[in-house]
Specification:
transmembrane; single chain; 503 residues; mainly alpha; 17 helices; 2 domains; 77% helix; xenobiotic transmembrane transporter activity
Length: 503
């Protein structure tokens, strides 16, 4: 790595930015913590900053995830085939595409977050437009995956009836693909400025409309999967249109100054960073997508897929809490590194890991206590409910692990470590977890429980590796690297003028 000793770090005044309306960032880095009193004082300060970002982000993530989950819930009351079709399309087809889109869009978490921390506010809109160009080109390529979803699912050995239904549903869901291409860059653009409250409000309103529309089309009018597709596409497109209206109204100040030709400059370099982010997150998303696929090879595949999809739904809802923390952590780390506050960045990681772990433990205890009641919310099938009940201990353990792992990934994105973490994911997920799951599930005859336990081992190992990385990180060096990255992508870091400080 280059020697950044000669590079001037950002001055304290460069960190005088807003956290979107509630509090002002510290003018100096956090002071050394010399005892419990200092720790709890700084813990309280960082908690307020964290929850100002994480609260709306968690709510937004849960609402957006719940769009698909609500559709799946209603599909479970249409038929077991409809439930399996929606589950496979959400997990495999849409899951594959969402992983690619979200991953590529996550490059903005590094660039926008660090640029905002350094006062380069006018670059945020240009970064978002570059990401729009790249993600929409990617969406055009992914359309082929949707069109040929049915033969692809049959090719990899999925049940023929489920493959046909999921393939038809995938074609209906092509508009959602292009909504992803606009939504994920917009989300990172707004999150970097701590403008999460408006995204939460939009997501909450759309979820209410989506629930009503799904019930009307799928149950009341009996439109089944066609009704599910209409409701889901309309909801995602409405989210994008509302967010765009907010941005174009001038609410983001200098961060959005209109469409720019700069969006088409240095696309290749931007694409490389986007691909690194995509590979990192795709390896995580596709890993759990494979869990649903492997369940499709078991005897009585329909029951196994339905039960596992219900468990994955619950994990998904819980992970949305961690995802909200992920977004908040990424913003906090990238902003503080961009402003040359390495100790503050490090302490923010400690605070979020402690709080997310506590939430995961409480959620797991609630699930265990209600193990015989909650499965009936998702399915009318006695066999499916029985298998979900049997999987609850594994589900509870998975929730604890997955409440920590996304936080560490958020730190990696905020610091710009995507490429290295991609290699960690390959080793932990695909060389350890997946082979172990296949052996336990098929060779040892443990079925879906064995597959899940083995693959969960990969997640645990990856989480431990990321913990070691964080423990050994030189945060001052990361702050210097952030300064160099800002110069590479947006010019010299500069002292922001008074008009740059968001009100």
């Amino acid at each position: 790595m280059e020697n950044f000793a000669e590079q001037p770090l950002l001055s304290a005044a460069a960190a005088e930015r807003s956290s979107a309306a509630s509090f002002k960032a510290e003018e100096n880095d956090i002071k050394p913590i010399n005892g419990p009193r200092d720790f709890f004082r700084e813990f309280s300060v960082e908690t307020r900053k964290l929850w100002y970002l994480a609260g709306p982000s968690i709510f937004m993530s849960i609402c957006q995830y719940s769009l698909g989950a609500v559709t799946q819930l209603f599909a479970g009351h249409v038929s077991t085939v409809a439930l399996a079709a929606v589950a496979v399309e959400n997990s495999v087809i849409a899951g594959f595409s969402m992983g690619a889109m979200l991953g590529m869009g996550s490059a903005l978490e590094t660039l926008c977050g660090q640029a905002y921390g350094a006062g380069m506010i006018d670059m945020l809109g240009v970064y978002m437009q570059r990401s729009w160009v790249i993600l929409n080109c990617t969406a055009i390529l992914l359309v082929l995956f949707y069109i040929f979803a049915s033969p692809f699912l049959k090719l990899i050995g999925q049940d023929a009836q489920i493959s046909e239904a999921a393939g038809a549903f995938a074609i209906y869901m092509i508009p959602q693909l292009f909504a992803y291409a606009f939504n994920f860059p917009i989300a990172k653009f707004l999150q970097a400025q701590s403008k999460t409250m408006v995204m939460a409000a939009i997501a909450g309103a759309v979820l209410l409309l989506h629930t009503l529309l799904s019930w009307l089309l799928m149950i009341k009018l009996g439109m089944g999967l066609v009704g599910a597709a209409i409701a889901l596409n309309a909801s995602w497109l409405l989210i994008v249109l509302c967010q765009m209206a907010y941005i174009f109204s001038g609410a983001c100040g200098r961060a959005w100054s209109g469409f720019s030709r700069g969006a088409f400059r240095n696309l290749w370099g931007f694409l490389r960073l986007s691909l690194a982010s995509a590979v990192m997150l795709c390896l995580e998303v596709w890993y759990y997508m494979a869990l649903i696929l492997f369940a499709g090879y078991l005897k009585n595949a329909e029951i196994a897929v339905d039960a596992l999809s219900i468990c994955m739904n619950i994990v998904g809802w819980q992970v949305m809490i961690a995802t909200g923390f992920n977004a908040a952590t990424s913003v906090r780390v990238s902003n503080e590194l961009g402003a040359a506050h390495p100790r503050t960045a490090k302490f923010s990681v400690v605070v979020v890991v402690i709080q997310s772990t506590i939430i995961g433990l409480v959620s797991s205890l609630v699930l265990v206590a209600t193990h015989s009641q909650y499965p009936s919310l998702f399915s009318n099938s006695t066999e499916v409910r029985s298998l979900v009940d049997k999987l609850t201990p594994i589900l509870a353990t998975c929730i604890v692990i997955n409440n920590i792992q996304p936080i560490l990934s958020g730190v990696a994105i905020g610091a710009g470590w995507q490429a290295f973490v991609a290699y960690v994911n390959i080793a932990c997920y695909y060389l350890i977890g997946m082979p172990t799951g296949l052996v336990m599930g098929f060779k040892l005859g443990l079925g879906v429980e064995g597959i899940w336990m083995g693959m969960m081992l990969g997640t645990l190992v990856q989480t431990l590796v990321l913990f070691v990385m964080l423990f050994k990180t030189n945060w001052s060096k990361e702050a210097s690297a952030a300064t160099q990255r800002i110069k590479q992508w947006g010019g010299e870091a500069r002292r922001p003028k008074a008009r740059d400080i968001e009100k």
